[in-house]
């Protein structure tokens, strides 16, 4: 197929002429001025003649903010649009040039193919990205990435604009005159379409529970993360590749048995030693559950509560404080870990001594917003029952197999090994835990952490806890060894990802980087995404403890995981009344999608509304 290329704002058409004649490319070169004005410029007439002889189209008096007006519907599919050194003309300032770019991007969206690219060359410093050296202050730049986001585009690449490599090219147009300008250090910014921001509808999940089928409303913050199939056999997702490599290494030492098929998403009963606000509670209605078509926000809210909301509104004995006696027969929760499942298998005696039983699947936890805190991730648990006198050797063989698997993956990706160590737990009070390890420590007594360093400092504390090992005596002769690993965190560290959200992106460019499950260093397709800061302050209800985890979970929900940071920046208590006021700063940023200032403003508005209604705070 012929590749259609549109060039805008050509000064003397020398850049367009350099592209003309490329095999399989049809060039449409345009400029804002009339043909009479342009032909008076140096080299323009010769470049125009060369373009026409080469079969290119040359169009004059084209306004880059109204592109669809110049092309018939069947001619509006361009594979690439070039706009080199756009400018409003004369001494126009940064604000006017931002407006020009904003209108240009919106106009380009109407004539660009779905997989098309927009190339915008800017002088050094104008773009306002870290690629500019030196970098201008944000307010004094053209803020090109934020401007493009308003039209649904993300910056996917940026590289130097090397004028000396472009045959016959000469820049012109300094202050609307036929004069050249300095393009040393200029950059070419390449934009592509973003997948649209999601608008999640209420979702019903149907599962088999205790020999019956039940349906339950999925918490809104998890709607795009249920039933994604990352661990299916035909999956190319990095978490599946990591799991396959680890199990392959273990199979060299132990016989293996997979038991994923019997794991339920929902658990029931009391959670010992776990903060109840950290799990997703599901209240199954005793009546017939509505179908997906009948589901509405009202119905979802009627059957889905946080534990505190549920107790406050329904249990007069508890009144929002979790108590030992508060048990409701239809109260379930999404599994926060696979370790209880593994323990249940051991207690039933459904295991073969000497065999490693493998459990894997997604687990769900409410947590504070930090770069490596995941409300959902894929866990794998290896369980092996051995004689007491072989406990230490079993642990060592498990760890060695895990190390070998991770080292093999790491060498494939980057060519070097990261240090992986086994750290014995002396006292949890003196051990720094990340969210994964801290939660697991409530479920069981941890004997060892499996740590993975990401630098060369040689200190495990500067790395990440990616797994835990614990043991449990089941008889006078048998001891069971449990090894639990966070597959998502492992995939992130091995592939060099800094944002857990990227593992859950719906953008097909992510999985294209891992053909047939081959791991490699991840290259982001959304560079220097803009961030937006909003503050919110409020009075906390009298006599109630502020639930910060619920506060963060609401932020995740209303923003679709676009909030990357929440910081308490001020707190104040009135001496007369004792009322307490809190002020938090929220930072919004997407790792894979275009996120505009207007969209963030709407998210902030919804956030204020939700915390007012659900946490009963009084906004200031």
Automatic annotation (TrEMBL):
GO terms for cellular component: mitochondrial matrix. GO terms for molecular function: ATP binding; phenylalanine-tRNA ligase activity; rRNA (uridine-N3-)-methyltransferase activity. It catalyses: tRNA(Phe) + L-phenylalanine + ATP = L-phenylalanyl-tRNA(Phe) + AMP + diphosphate + H(+). It comes from the Eukaryota. SMART domains: FDX-ACB. It holds the Pfam family BMT5-like. Belongs to the class-II aminoacyl-tRNA synthetase family. This is phenylalanine--tRNA ligase.
């Amino acid at each position: 197929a012929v590749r259609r290329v549109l060039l805008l704002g050509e000064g003397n058409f020398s850049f367009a002429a350099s592209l003309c004649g490329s095999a399989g490319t049809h060039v449409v070169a345009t400029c804002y001025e009339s043909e009479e004005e342009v032909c008076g410029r140096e080299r323009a007439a010769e470049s125009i003649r060369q373009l026409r002889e080469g079969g290119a189209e040359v169009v004059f008096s084209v306004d880059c903010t109204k592109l669809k007006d110049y092309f018939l519907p069947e001619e509006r599919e361009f594979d690439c649009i070039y706009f080199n050194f756009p400018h409003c003309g004369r001494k126009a300032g940064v604000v006017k040039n931002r407006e020009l770019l904003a209108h240009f991007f919106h106009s380009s969206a109407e004539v660009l193919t779905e997989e098309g690219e927009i190339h915008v060359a800017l002088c050094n410093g104008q773009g306002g990205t870290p690629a500019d050296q030196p970098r201008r202050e944000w307010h004094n730049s053209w803020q090109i990435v934020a401007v493009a986001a308003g039209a649904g585009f993300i910056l996917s690449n940026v590289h130097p604009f090397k004028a000396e490599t472009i045959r016959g090219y000469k820049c012109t147009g300094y202050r609307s005159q036929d004069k050249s300008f300095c393009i040393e250090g200029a950059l070419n910014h390449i934009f592509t379409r973003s997948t649209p921001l999601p608008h999640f509808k209420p979702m019903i999940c149907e599962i088999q529970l205790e020999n019956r089928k039940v349906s339950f409303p999925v918490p809104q913050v998890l709607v795009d993360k249920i039933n994604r199939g990352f661990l299916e056999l035909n999956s190319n997702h990095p978490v599946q590749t990591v799991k396959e490599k680890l199990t392959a290494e273990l199979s060299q030492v132990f016989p293996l048995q997979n038991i994923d098929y019997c794991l339920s998403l929902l658990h029931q009963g009391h959670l010992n030693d776990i903060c109840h606000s950290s799990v997703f509670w599901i209240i199954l209605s005793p009546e017939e559950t509505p179908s997906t078509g009948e589901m509405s926000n009202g119905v979802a809210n009627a059957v889905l509560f946080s534990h505190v909301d549920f107790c406050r509104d329904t249990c007069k004995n508890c009144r929002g404080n979790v108590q030992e006696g508060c048990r409701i027969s239809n109260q379930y929760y999404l599994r926060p870990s696979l370790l209880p499942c593994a323990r249940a298998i051991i207690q039933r005696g459904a295991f073969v001594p000497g065999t490693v039983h493998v459990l894997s699947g997604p687990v769900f936890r409410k947590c504070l917003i930090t770069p490596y805190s995941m409300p959902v991730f894929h866990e794998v648990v290896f369980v092996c029952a051995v004689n007491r006198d072989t406990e230490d050797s079993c642990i060592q063989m498990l760890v060695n197999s895990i190390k070998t698997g991770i080292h093999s993956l790491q060498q494939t990706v980057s060519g070097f090994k990261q240090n992986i160590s086994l750290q014995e737990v002396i006292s949890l009070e003196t051990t720094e835990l990340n969210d994964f390890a801290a939660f697991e420590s409530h479920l069981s007594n941890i004997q060892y952490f499996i740590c993975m360093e990401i630098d060369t400092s040689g200190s495990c504390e500067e790395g990440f806890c990616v797994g835990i090992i614990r043991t449990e005596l089941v008889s006078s002769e048998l001891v069971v060894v449990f090894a639990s690993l966070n597959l998502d965190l492992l995939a992130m560290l091995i592939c060099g990802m800094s944002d857990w959200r990227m593992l859950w992106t719906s953008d097909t460019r992510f999985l294209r980087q891992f053909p047939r499950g081959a791991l490699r260093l991840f290259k982001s397709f959304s560079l220097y995404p803009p961030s937006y800061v909003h503050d919110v302050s409020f009075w906390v209800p009298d006599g109630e403890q502020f639930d910060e985890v619920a506060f963060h979970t609401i932020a995740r929900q209303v923003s679709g995981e676009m909030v990357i940071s929440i910081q308490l920046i001020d707190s104040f208590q009135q001496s007369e009344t004792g009322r307490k006021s809190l002020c938090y700063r929220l930072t919004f940023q997407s790792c894979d999608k275009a996120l505009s200032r207007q969209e963030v403003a709407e998210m902030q508005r919804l956030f204020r509304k939700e915390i007012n209604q659900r946490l009963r705070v009084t906004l200031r």
